[in-house]
Amino acid sequence: MTKNLTAGRPGKTILFFAVPMLLGNIFQQLYNMVDSVVVGNFVGFDALAAVGNSFTITFCATALAFGLSSGATIYIGQHFGAGNSRKVRQAVVTSTVFSVGFSLVLSLAGVLLCRPLLALVRTPASVMPMSLVYMRIYLLGLVFTFTYNMLSAVFRALGDSKMPLAFLVVASVVNIVLDLLFVLAFDMGVAGVALATVIAQAVSSVLAFVFFKKQLRQMERQEQQKDGSQLQPTETLARQFQLSVLWEIIRLAVPATLQQIAISGGIIIMQGFVNSFGPQIMAAYTAAIKFENIIMMSITSISIAVTAFAAQNMGARQTERVRSGYRWGLLISLFFALVLGAAAILLREPLISLFISGQGAQAVIEAGSSYLVWTFGSSLFMALLFSAEGVLKGAGDVTFCMVIGFASILVKVAAAYVLSPRMGYQGLWATMVIGWGAEALCATGRYLSGRWKSKGVTAGSWPKDGQLPDGGAQKGAPDEVTGVTEDA
Known about the structure:
By secondary structure, this protein is mainly alpha-helical. It has 16 helices and no strands. It is 81% helix and 0% strand. It starts with 9 loop residues before the first helix and ends in a 39-residue tail after the last helix.
């Protein structure tokens, strides 16, 4: 199922498109939280620290998957908005095949480099063995992470956010059941939660692939009806995989991927600072960021909706509609930031208590609760940042997003070096707010400048001054900015 985001009321369109992603992200965070709750309560805070410490590094792999899929989202969304079904089909096949191959290489490299990476973040000796077990199992299943992320991005670029939700719901149930089975019944510890996660991701990726094939055949039939061609099923994939399309997707994905690498690098650096305070603070940080991630992913859902909305409307040359989408996206994001941020403060101690019990638990609860207080400020800056970035990425202005991503890391590292010796781990919590704030102000400034208007993949037929007229897309004109040609 596809959906045209270039018509209808912008606020309603974005909200309805974002709700399935929001629910999906909640389910995803739920099963991530169950991993931590199970090991924290039934294995110990060293195991909780190990899962959190490993997640910091495995997030880098997930970030690469997200960066690559974002390039496909922009390319597919803009060509879909422009009505170019041929380019859409080629991009869907090309990006998916490349994603699978790349993930296999990355998986092998990750398994071989587990120990050096964990040493890089100053993993304590008591946590190292369990961290190694968790990371190696997770990385062996990386192909499923990449496949699911890419196919979900394809569905969203085509205006369908409901199918990825269905896949995530099934995966969440599978993960929770297997967590309890492997840890409580089979006493597998962190290996059990890692294996449960990989199996759940495999289920979601297989489901996504099955429905993706159906979607692809539907697109092929539409193309045949349009031009009268007779595509043979055995020749379809070979004909649709295009190196020229792959290059355009990679060109768009590289800045987004580098931005994700910068974010991952910042997380690794911050994890190193946190690790220097010992396993209890590591466990507190692991528990607290689970709730911060719920806030962040809620706002990110709106941002992804804005990205798809902006991409399709940039392809259709409707820039005023893009601006309206930004305003609605910001309003909805601020609502989530205020409500969830306030809830995190009011319920901070009961929330952290879910993850830990027994000896040493009180110190973990106190440190984790203090992090959630600082999260309120971070959530407001997230709303500003992700709303602006949604438009910038949808318009194809991905290089600027990459630059401010790297700049934000430098700000966080500098702040951590200054504040942590003076404020202890509270200084690290403050550093998070400072980093989000700096990045949010830069992204908002870029949006207000309007320079993103000339960055579209299908921008070739726009006037030289970069002021884009609203209305239908012009087909068949080469892109003066990117060299992409609009095929009829």
